[in-house]
């Protein structure tokens, strides 16, 4: 009887999870709340999920041109991630992990990343994010690059 109850509970939880996001974003007690800096500490992905990896996206417009303005590049970077995810039927909320590379990182760029990140994730369910300051990126004038790992439900 307990086995049947357990299976029923697991099935119900599985069905509920299928209606929402595959990943769970958390900030455990005992660690400071990182949301003010635009990220979360932990993302948990269930075994029945499909991972979608998006290559590092730059802040280029549709013609591949870069603005000299950091905020503009951040906006285009997020838009480019969203376009890549949309091609798989996903949205920015499906991202579990980001890696952010920023040229000549400083407090002003930190502030801009947080402000623009809050526009993308207004509920502050930020993905896990590793930010790496770098001296240069692949293209001349490229100030930011972000890669993403997103999660979608498996149909199995």
Strands, total number: 6
Please summarize the sheet with the most strands. Answer: 4 strands, mixed
Structural class: alpha+beta
The quaternary structure here is single chain
Cα-atom radius of gyration: 18 Å
> How would you spell out the order of helices and strands?
HEEEHEHEE
The helix fraction, in percent, is: 25-40%
Principal-axes geometry comes out as globular
- End-to-end CA span: 27 Å
Q: Beta-strand percentage? A: 25-35%
Name the poorly predicted regions: 1-19
Number of helices: 3
Strand order of the largest sheet: 3-6-4-5
Average pLDDT level: 85
Task: Give a written overview of the molecule.
The structure is a single chain. With 156 residues, the chain is an alpha+beta fold. 31% of the residues lie in helices and 27% in strands. It has 3 helices and 6 strands; from the N terminus they run H-E-E-E-H-E-H-E-E. It has helices at 2-19, 70-86, 107-120, and strands at 24-26, 42-44, 49-58, 95-103, 128-134, 144-153. Strands 3-6-4-5 form a 4-stranded mixed β-sheet. Helix 3 links the parallel strand 4 and strand 5. Helix 2 (70-86) runs parallel beside helix 3. The longest helix has 18 residues, at 2-19. It starts with a helix and ends with a strand.
Strand and helix map with partners:
Blueprint lengths: L1 H18 L4 E3 L15 E3 L4 E10 L11 H17 L8 E9 L3 H14 L7 E7 L9 E10 L3
Parallel strand pairs: 4-5
Antiparallel strand pairs: 1-2, 3-6, 4-6
Helix pairs in contact: 2-3
